[in-house]
Every structure is written in C-alpha cells, then in structure tokens.
Request: fold
Amino acid sequence: MTKIALVTGGTRGIGASISSNLKDSGYTVIANYASNDESAENFSKENNIEVMKWDVSNYEQTKSCISEIYNKYSSIDILINNAGITQDAPLHKMTVEKWNKVISVNLNSVFNVTSSVINKMRENGFGRIINISSVNGQKGQFGQTNYAATKSALIGFTKSLALESASKGITSNVICPGYINTEMVAAIREDILKSIIDTIPSKRLGEANEIAEMVSYLVSEKASYINGATFSVNGGLWMD
Ligand code: NDP
Reply:
C-alpha cells in the first residue's frame, strides 16, 4: 500500500522540495503550510500535491487537522517536521515576543505534530520521523539564541524519541542543513550573506533538493537501521 507522508511547511523552500521529491518516489504527500495561500495553491497545482493550512505551533489546530488526515487516509507513515522561522536579534535586544514565537513555531510544533502521530505509528509498527534542525543549532550563531536553542533542542528530541520508538519499527533522525538557497536565506542582508558564503568550504549555498535527497533515503526501507542519527548537509561549514 502507498505510504502517506506529512511534510510541515511543505509548500515552499526546503519543504517544497522534500514534498515533491517524496511524491516522485511514490508516496502520497500532504504538504502543510501556515498562511501563504498563493504559494501553496501554485505549489499544489504544479505538483499535484494536497496542501493543508494550519499553524503547527497551535496544539488544538494540529490535533484537529491530523484527525482530519486520519479520517481520509487512516495512516501517516512518514512525518517530516520542517516548518520553521527566524526572528533574529542578539539576546540583549531579544524581545519576549520574538523568543516565544520562535520557540513555539520551531520547537513546540514538533511536539504538537509528533505527539499526534506517534501512537498510530506505534500501533502500525512502522514510522519514519525526520526533524529539520540547522547548522546553527550545532554551532550557534550571532543573533540567533532563540533559533539555535530550538534547533539544538530538536537533536535531543530526536535521540530520545529514537530510544523510545525503535522497538516499534519507528526511526527518528535529524538533518542539519547549512545555508540553503531559499527565501529564508534570501532575507539575509547581501553583504552578510556574502561573508557567510566565504566561510563555506564549498563556496556556495546548498540547494533544497540536496536536503530532499537525504530525506528520501532516510525514509526508505533501506534506511531502517539508521536511528537517532544527526546528518550535517552543509558544504563543510561545520564538521560535527
Ligand atoms: P521557508 O521560509 O522558505 O519556508 C517555510 C515553510 O514553513 C513555509 O511553507 C511556511 O508556510 C511554513 N511555516 C512557517 N511557519 C509555520 C507554521 N507556524 N505552521 C505551519 N507552517 C509554517 O523556509 P526554509 O525552506 O528556508 O526552511 C525550512 C526549514 O529548514 C526550517 O525549519 C528552517 O529552520 C530549516 N533550515 C533552513 C535553512 C536555510 O538555509 N534555508 C538552513 C538550516 C535549516 P507559509 O508558506 O504559509 O509561510
């Protein structure tokens, strides 16, 4: 039977590439998004992928939308926790609103979505969970105490979940992308971005499909012995 994959933030950037790559590999994909209807509709039409709008940082909305998916498909076999945002400021200028927003969208969302699918995965004896962290969760980054805190937290979350779920046929792994050519990175000031690229041994940004290819391998049957692992995909920017 065709496996069902849910990709949070799956309509733009890295998530869009993951969604279309999984579809090309034969999975039925549901791509979640938060607010950008135009991008989501275009993505859906171009790729023939079902899109579903809800805020993954909202626990009640998440529960209710995931129930809707279960009513329609009966299982969610693959979960890619990809939705994420930045709201940068050095800590001495960090507002509580920026702190809470990033914790909520990048970290609480992963609890909200994963806790909503884990019991059925355990019953089914199969699951693939991939969390999208960041190189900046591994090494830290000026202006990103909030973002880096969430992205490091995903590594601990993933390892703990792997311990809890391995005996039920579920793998849980984390990918830490370096700087990838998406709208999130396009928002970085040009001179700062240039100085970042200078520090990347590969001397270029990564492409979203380079993350999607790693995801496709990790969700496949071939990767069933890979569990609790952290994968850096960063052009050599940080070797950990
Ligand atoms: P984009 O900003 O290009 O896309 C983000 C996606 O997440 C969009 O689909 C957006 O929906 C969705 N989203 C945002 N907030 C929510 C929410 N509350 N509920 C549901 N969906 C939401 O991001 P990227 O593709 O660049 O990044 C994807 C992930 O990869 C993030 O977790 C990011 O931290 C991580 N990452 C990115 C790197 C990069 O260089 N780009 C580097 C390292 C990690 P909508 O379209 O409606 O706004």
